[in-house]
Input
Amino acid sequence: MKRAILALVAMMVIAAPRILHAQDRGVSLPSAKAASQDVRRVLIIGAHPDDEDSQLISWLQRAGQAETAYLSLTRGDGGQNLIGNELGEALGVIRTEELLAARRVDGAHQFFTRAYDFGFSKSATETYNHWPKDSLSNDVVKVVRAFKPHIIIAIFSGTPRDGHGQHQVSAMLAKEAYESAGDVNRFPASLGEPWTPQKFYRAVWYAPMTATLKINVGEFNPTLGKSYAEIAGESRSQHRSQGFGSLQRKGVVWDYVMREATRVNESTPANKEESMFDGITAVPPTTGTQSSAQALARKAVALEAVSDRQYVAVGDSARVTATFYNRGRNAVALTRRFGDSSGVVKVLGDSVYRWAYYARGNEITQPWWLATPRNGDLFSQPIPVSRGAAADPVETAEDQRNRANEANATVVLPGDSDPLRVSAPIVFRYVDRIRGDIQKPLATAPAISVSLENKTELARANSPLERFLNVTLRSASLKAAPVTVTLRLPPGLAADSVSRSITLDSTRTRTVTFKVHGRLSPGVHQLGVVASSGGNTYESGYVPIDYEHISPERLYRPAQVAIHAVDIAIPAKLNVGYVRGVGDNVEPALAQLGIPVTEIEPKAIPTVDLSKFSTVVVGPRAYQASRDLVDNNPYLLNFAKDGGTLVVQYGQYEMTRPGMMPYAISIAQPHDRVTEETAPITIIDASSVAFLRPNLIRADDFNGWVQERALYMPRTFDDRYHAIVALNDPGEPVNRGGIMVAPYGKGLYIYTTLAFFRQLPAGVSGASKLFVNLLSMSNDGTRRAVMGAGR
Output
């Protein structure tokens, strides 16, 4: 399995043998010859996993135009998630794997830098406040010197036109690398052998009139049976967490690039070029000349490696059965790379050869960039890419881990004197009665993994707390083991049992539940768990990240939860129905505060007695994610009209459609947002009950917010909405679309674009109090009750 080669291009070739993978694992690995200066290469640079020009990448790589790579500065950690509730680093793992899944489709290579996606920024200056420029420049140059591209293509312009500051920075760094990657005075030799790219282009698909070259990426490849645009549609559709499912387009499809700089063919005007490779003497990649019989023979061999389990404990070994398939008619000579014997085995045509060996688990399998804590908004692990002489392969830390998790062999085919290397990832394989053949890569884990459900939770300070704490234990051992689980409780809390002993069966998962009770003073309190077994203690564990379209991963973290005890008042009458949105963890945060909350499925809305709720809440971007919610929205509006309080968290442009909200709004393009989490928030109407009951909101309640203030804020709105806050990023116009309250029939409609979906799960006390106030508002038929206590 290729994970973060995955962060960077990998080459597993040693010496002369070529590589054939039993399964397409994502990155087509060039031979040593392909790594030389003789084969042309193109590096495309963007900011995020979904920024890449999928059509251009597919055409370049699959058409054999050039060895192609995409460098994403970030892993998309700061985005949002349409397929689950993972955010931050966990989302970065998903989006990394989605990008690698895309590369498995289009065959290109993949690189990343150390940049953590801290969220939307509006300028390059703001972005560089988070990312040290020298560090990012070094990373980009390190990749350029390792991959040695003849052409660099920037996805963005490097100007404010790009919108996102991270987009601007990616283009700036791309141009800087073109200009200076060969300069050892500007960038030291420790970053790799100097390399000077020959041409620099920008992608201008968004502005075809500025293009100097257009390319038909819809060209059909009869060997593949698809056009490059069709391949690109499949590749683009791997970005499911961002909702980027795409059509697989047939026919002529144009892509556009603009030549901005060149060190070759300077005499040819940019708009007179016939190809972006004009003036470049390096040749397209080639698989070499071979007969049709040889080509067929190469397709007729395969290797599988199946483990006896999915997880192997650190220091333990898993039994692996390797199977070599010769599906051709002629015998081949096979040399095993693993096993207890060496030498050559003759494998007859249409036959199978098997051998067994043991694979040792040496270190925990996890996203390598998360093995140590971040340093601000940079991952602390250096990007593991290097190259020696021009023909040497790129070597990464991920390559070493992958080789340890592979079965390998070499085979000599009939009529071919060059040995061919075949490899296969070691997988645990089983049948799912619904999905069929399931293969999970063998992973190394602690003998016992111990984890809690959340890293952060909310609680009411100075109030009785009673909560069930679920501790998940996972075994990677083949033997059942007695385990004692012990809580480390903060002052003020007790449990029904501080420790509990169980027998954890081999390779099994088990949950141990404690009942915790007591009172906590205002502040942050740490609760930890330790598991003991066989004289060893375990204080961390993993959370699986497993979706059908990506390779599974594990996010490791300490078995601790930070409980944020908030001095907050909750009205006794509050009873909330909640429709979940995108990447939405607000509902469990409300339950942690002791608020009665019931999740409502969008399709079930017509069958639910909404009158039993005082308030119904709609999560962020819920209307975008659910057609059922759109269809059943009239039921929610009627709930408000009949006297309930309907609180809707931000949506995107779908909210401007008639019938989505009771009164019209407009959202600018690009949309208004406040990205500075410290940007001042002005209370327009200090007499509004939203700031008075049941919790008094002060200026310091807007301190400590995370990542952003508000997003997709209405630019204009109907006068029947009453705006109660105003905010803006420095130097920008004030926007009053943060919280809007409107009487609607006998009830209230409240629309908020403040980023509560980030604040409550992060334990931000002021945001929690303000949100509870919004849930507690009601319309008693007077303007005073809705707008302000003093009116």
